[in-house]
Specification:
The protein is α/β, with parallel strands linked by helices and 140 residues long. It is 21% helix and 27% strand. It has one domain: Rossmann fold (3-Layer(aba) Sandwich), CATH 3.40.50. It has a 6-stranded mixed β-sheet. Helix 1 links the parallel strand 3 and strand 4. It is globular.
């Protein structure tokens, strides 16, 4: 049973000129887990698991650019490729100071996470792939 001692907080951080909304809970001193959502959802999809996970981990769930409460620049102003989305998430984790973390990926978040994991395998403590895909574009 979850004591809900760690309430979910909602914040926005500016990353490379984009406002990235994220939900987070738990003790930042504990191992972190980064939750990357699918399409056409947002971090809201994780609303029922963030607090239970926060009992043992620091949980971070961003809205990818173009989703939820994050900035949604036009396609002329932002390159919505998996590679560029991964660059934005990499800048996001740098801004938060996450050094090493578990990575949960699903659906559209999968290729973003694969790009991130192949770029920075030294930062990935573990990879959880749920309802995921694997194709050349997503593997970096």
């Amino acid at each position: 049973m979850c004591s809900n001692r760690y309430k979910t907080r909602h914040e926005t951080i500016n990353v490379d000129g984009l406002d990235i909304f994220y939900r987070h809970a738990g003790d930042p001193g504990r191992p972190a887990i980064l939750l990357l959502h699918g399409y056409p959802t947002s971090s809201h999809v994780y609303r029922n698991v963030i607090e239970p996970l926060a009992e043992t981990a620091y949980v971070v769930a961003p809205d990818l650019p173009g989703f939820g409460f994050s900035s949604a620049p036009s396609i002329d102003a932002y390159d919505y490729t998996f590679d560029n989305l991964a660059s934005t998430i990499e800048a996001f984790i740098e801004a938060l100071g996450l050094q090493r973390f578990f990575l949960h990926i699903t659906d559209f978040g999968t290729p973003v996470g694969y790009h991130l994991a192949t770029r920075r395998p030294d930062r990935i403590l573990g990879l959880i792939a749920q309802d995921s895909n694997a194709h050349d574009e997503g593997l970096g």
